[in-house]
Every structure is written in structure tokens, then in C-alpha cells.
Amino acid sequence: MKRTLKRTLAAWLAVIMIFGSVPFAAFVGFEITNDIPFFSTKAKALTYNGTCGDNLNWTLDADTGALTISGIGSMDDYVLSYLPWYSVRSEIKSVEIADGVTAICDYAFYGCENLLTVAVSASVESIGSNAFGLCHALTSITVDTKNINYFTDDNGILFSHDKTQLIKFPSNNILTEYQIPEGVKTISESAFSYAANLKSIEIADSVTSVGKEAFYYCENLAEAILGNSLTSIGENAFYSSGVTSVAIPSSVTEIGKNAFGWCYNLKNISVDTDNEFYSNDKFGVLFNKNQTKLIKFSNNSKQATYSIPATVTVIEQDAFENCYRLKEVAIPASVAEIGSGVFFNCNLEFMTVNIDNQFFSNDNCGVLFNKDKTELIQYPIKSAKTSYKTPDSLLTIKTAAFHNSKIIENIVLSDGLTSIEKEAFLYCTNLDFIHVPESVSEIEENILNSDDTYICSKSENSYAKEYADSNKISFKVCSGHDASGITISESEVSVENKGTYQLSASVTPDTAADKSVVWFSDNTAVASIDENGIITAVSIGSANITATTFDGSYYANCKVIVTPRYFDIVWDVEGVKTTQSVAEGSVISKPDTPEKTGHTFTGWTPNVPNNMPTEDLVFTATWSVNSYNAVFNA
User: Fold this and answer.
1) Which distant-in-sequence residues (6+ apart) come within 8 Å of 21 by Cβ?
2) Do 224 and 201 touch, CB atoms closer than 8 A?
3) Are the CB atoms for 364 and 386 separated by under 8 Å?
4) Is 44's pLDDT higher than 60?
5) How many whole angstroms separate alpha carbon 45 and alpha carbon 68?
6) In sequence order, what are the residues at sequence separation of 6 or more whose Cβ sits closer than 8 angstroms to the Cβ of residue 630?
7) Prior bond to 591 cis, omega within 30?
8) Cα(512)–Cα(517) distance, rounded to whole angstroms?
9) pLDDT reported for residue 538
10) Cα 524 to the chain's mean position, in Å?
């Protein structure tokens, strides 16, 4: 063995020495096989080649990007990343399937992002699933006219030979509007996926089936007209497309999971009233016929609040996923089943469950739980709270429960919790820490991804520490996160009547689990205070404001003195004006009686009230002319 190794090393050293004496220009090109790469000193283009079937070969000219499949028979079946040309797929610009090749395997050219054109020979009998998936630059596919299994039209769109199946609309085809020809019965899986330029599609009345992911990520597709013979819409069929509304004909009997998921522009789904399987409500929400199953709430619905009808027993998987306008949802007593991811990435601020519901509940923060609060299902990701402590009854945090909650800063998980499911705190970008109790024995993968978030627990000898270390997450030992005190920014404030003043309260320590505050006024007739600590002066007097920690253990006080407003009185005596500032409600003191030669002061106009109103006043002195009797002696 040692001698063989030495001989091999010596041989390679000899090769290196020989090539070391050859000018670099001699290596203009070299050839690579999928077995052992070797150099050719002939000046030719860089090529890659190898086998892809028992009797099939492939060659890629790196200068032109032309990939040729030649030989006799079918391609081998490959796991995607093991395709012979997978590592050089970005260099492929065109594909030619030569005559003699009978089968193209599943995912054959998947992810060839620079592939522009494909030419299919007459011998090809089968083309595998997603053979041209994620070929974002693909403009056209051509099929030899002698092929008896496949056909392409003048637009480079691939069909079955009898034109009953539309197989692939190239992702970068220039068409912006397309009407599927009459005669087509099936739109294949991923047929139009990632069609970047397509804005409008009209599905012929002959079409009965739209396949899985058929219009997946057609982000510019604003209009989709469904034909009147359509019976089946596949899973994720229009997922993340740009459709603004959908009209489902009476013929449809099956709609696959998440068929209209993540359609950011979708405002409304309507169902023909003659459809025997599906229906919609006045808000454009999709249901089964008798509205016992809620299937899809439109992502761009204008509804900020929504009360689920009392007929609903099942909310299907992803029904409210990514509904970015919806703020509040009310779940009725009738709901017995909520699918996974129902409210995923939905911009909710609060969820309410009818108190009579036997399966689900909510807490006073609008968080969704199972009935006995042993499972936390969904935290409203737009909740204004920056801290949250889970209830003592909690055992499990469900998958993605806090996912994308960008406001929350700290979470304390209560003692007794045993498991945290995957992605529970993923994309909580403002989250400082998660307190994990020692009772936790299972944490699934990928629960958080922020480098600034740390996990803490009361002991180094905890599963939390073990998990943090194995997942390269910062860990700290802490003594707990109960509030230990509260202070108010002011101990006494003066507020002018009808004015406002902002108080702030600080809960200690900084790592307290719940920093929320309850505000209270003992004299709301004088001063009220809202949940944000804003005082409103109501009338002159005094009141005491109290800020209490949410658990009621600690409080702080502030005295509020409401002072009167001052208004001006102008006393006008023959154009000479004197201004007097007077507090509202106080007695008005009139000035000394003015004098005017030859006149007698008769009062002020308008009449002067006893007390100062809440407005500026002007009073003008009035006079009567004095009269005199003159006696002349003769």
C-alpha cells in the first residue's frame, strides 16, 4: 500500500513538473468529465461532459452555454443535487435534447437560472415533473414537429401532442396576456410558475383541472378568469400570485390547500351561488357550502376587524395567513378545530374567543390558547406590548407562535412549561431575551434567529443552557423576572384646566417580565388618565393618580393640581383700553367709575357678568350728556 501511494504521488509530481514547463497559454481549454477531470493541451473551448443514462451522454460548451444530451434511451432518475450538470447549471443557456433520447427525468433542468431556450427532439416520449422549474430566464421551448407525444405553439409554450394538457409556459415568455386554447383540459403542475411577465390569464371552458402550484409566484398576474368547466384547483395553485379577485364558477368541486395563499393583492373571493361545494360571505371570505369550514380570508381585504360566523366549526390551515390589514378577529363558540398556521404572519393586535367555546380561549392580552391554556397557539404579532409572561398553566408553545412579532422585547416563560416547538420566536427582531424555566425538557430546532437575543434560566444545569450552547445562542443565568417596584416620572404636576399632560411609569428591574402599567384617578371629575398615562384636566381642583404594576404588587402616586385658565377683559373708555387678566369662574372686579367732562357714566356695554366665563371679553363705557339750566338776569 505504501509503495503504491509513493508511486501515485511520484506520478502526479511528474505531471506537475511537465505542465510547469508548459506556457500557460497552452491551457486555453481543458475538458472535464463527471468521472475524472483531465487537461487537454489542445486549444479548444472549456467543456464539461459525462453520462446521464446507460447510453446517454451530456456535453456543456462553457463558451456558448449549450448543453447537449445525446445517445439512446432515457435519462437516469436523479435526486436534484446529484444531476450531473448541477454544479455548473448557472452556465447553461440552451438545451438540446438530441434524437434518440426517450425520456427527460424529473427536475432535469431545475434551477438553471440562465437557461433561455430548449429544443426537444422527435424521440422524446416523456418529460418529467418540474423539468424546467425555476428556469427564470426561459423564453421558449421548441419540439420537433415529428414528435408524437409533445407539441409547442408559436409562443414556445409546451403542450401534450393532442393539446389537451398545457405542460409549461416558459417563465420569461414575453406574453403579458394569454388565453388558454379551447381543447386544453389540464394545466399541469407548476405550468405557469414564476411567469414574470404574465398579467392576465383566461382559462378556457374546456379546462377541468388546474394543477398544483400552476400559477405559483406569478407576482404580476392581476387577473385570472376561471373557465366554466373547471372542477379542480390544486394545492398552492395561485400561491403568491398578484390576483386581485377570484370568481369561482359553479363547476368547482375541489380547492386544494392554500390555493390562494399569500396573494398580497387579493381583496375578494366570490363563488357562483349555484356551486354545491363552496360559498362566500359579504366580506369575500371563502367557505364550504354550508359555512362550517372557513377556508380563506383574502390577504388584502379592507376589513380591519372580522367576526367569524357562528356556523363555523373548522378554520382550515393557513386561512388567515399573511392578512396584513386585519387587526382583530373574534372566534365564536362553535369553532372546534383550528388548523396549523391559521394566523401565521397575520398583523393581528388582538384575538377574542367566545367564553362559551369548549376548545379555545384567549387571555387579556389577546393571545390565542387551547381551552385550558396548556398550549399557546398564536401571539398577536402587532400587539403593542413589549413584554409578556405566559400563564402558569402553559405546557407547550406551538410552532411559530410568536413568529415575526417585531414589537415584543422580552418573554418570560412560566414554570411548568415543558416544550417549545420549532420557529416559535423566529424573526422577533426586537426580542432581548427569552426566560426558559428549568421545567423545559424539549426545544425544537430554529426557535429564534436574532443574534441579539439571549436565552436565560435560573441555572447553568438546565436544558435551556444545553440548547443554547448547541445552537450557538447566548445564555445568561438570571434570578427571575418578577417586578420589584414602580416609579412615576413626576410626584406632583400642575395642569391647566382642559389641558393634557403625559406621565410615564418605569417598572423595575429592566428585565421584568411584564412592564405594563394600570393607571387610576381617584377623582375623574377633576382629572382623568388613559391607559397610556395621558392626564386630561376636567375641572379645577386636585386628584391623585396611581400607577400599578400589572400584577398589582407595586404602585406609585402622583398628585395632579388642575389650575384655572385665564382670559382677558378689555375695558374701553373713549378709546383708552385697559386689559385685565381674570381666572375662569372668578368674580369680575369692575374698574373705578370713569369720568368724562360734561357726561355722566351710565355703565358698561354689554352687561358685565358676575363671574368670568371661558372667553375673552370687551366692555365699553357708556355715557349720558349732562344738561344745565342757565339763568340770565336782565
Assistant:
1) none
2) yes
3) no
4) no
5) 15
6) none
7) no
8) 12
9) 96
10) 41
What single-letter amino acid sits at 477?
Answer: V
496-535 burial, b at 16+ Cβ within 10 Å, e below that, comes to ebeeebebebebeeebbbbbbbebebebeebbbbeeebeb
As a whole number of Å, the CA-based R_g of the chain is 39
CA distance 533 to 488: 10
Q: How far apart are CA 120 and CA 101, in angstroms?
A: 9
> Which three cell numbers mark 31?
475538458
Residue 42 has pLDDT above 80, yes or no: no
> From the centroid of its chain, how far is CA 328?
15
Partnered with residue 51 across adjacent β-strands are: 57
* One-letter identity of residue 163: K
378 membership: H or E segment, kind and range: strand 375-378
Distances (CA, A) of 258 to 238, 240, 321, 433, 594: 8, 10, 9, 34, 87
| Mean confidence (pLDDT) of the chain | 91
Number of other CB atoms surrounding residue 549 within 10 Å: 23
Angular region, 538: left φ>0, alpha ψ -120 to 50, beta rest: alpha
Q: What does the DSSP 8-state code read for residue 611?
A: B
- Element containing residue 9 per DSSP (H, E): helix 2-20
Q: Residue 605 has what pLDDT?
A: 96
Calculate mean pLDDT across residues 428-456. Answer: 91
CA 611 to chain centre: 59
Beta strand pairing call for 66-71 and 56-61: antiparallel
Which residue do the cell numbers 418570560 mark?
Answer: 412
Q: pLDDT tens digit string along 538-589?
A: 999 999 999 999 777 899 999 999 999 999 999 999 999 999 999 999 999 9
**Is residue 22's pLDDT more than 70?**
no
Distance of alpha carbon 42 from alpha carbon 35, whole angstroms: 20
Contact 413, 440 (CB under 8 A): yes
Buried b / exposed e along 194-204 (16+ C-beta atoms within 10 A): bbebbeebebb
* Residue type at 84 in one-letter notation: P
Edge-to-edge strand list for the sheet holding 165-168 = 150-152, 158-160, 165-168, 186-187, 209-210, 232-233, 254-255
Length of the chain: 634
Rounded distance between C-alpha atoms, residue 555 and residue 270, angstroms: 54
Q: Give the span between the Cα atoms of 589 and 611, in whole angstroms.
A: 9
What cell does 215 get?
A: 400559477
Kindly report the backbone phi and psi dihedral angles of residue 4, in degrees, each rounded to the nearest multiple of 5, phi listed first.
-60, -45
Determine the pLDDT at residue 45. 57
Residue 26, C-alpha cell as written in the block? 497552452
Query: Cell 418540474 identifies what position?
Result: 130
In the three-class reduction of DSSP (H, G, I as helix; E, B as strand; rest coil), residue 90 is classed as: helix
Instruction: State the Cα–Cα distance between residues 457 and 444, nearest whole angstrom.
Output: 17
> DSSP letters along 266-318, please?
--EEEE-TT-SSEEE-TT--EEETTSSEEEE--TT-S-SEEE--TT--EE-TT
Q: What is the DSSP string of 200-254?
A: EEE--TT--EE-TTTTTT-TT--EEEPPTT--EE-TTTTTT---SEEEE-TT--E
DSSP state string for 416-472: T--EE-TTTTTT-TT--EEE--TT--EE-S-----TT-EEEES-SSSHHHHHHHHTT
Rounded to a whole number, what is the distance in angstroms from the first to the last CA of the chain?
167
Contact assessment for residue 128 and residue 107, using Cβ atoms and an 8 Å cutoff: yes
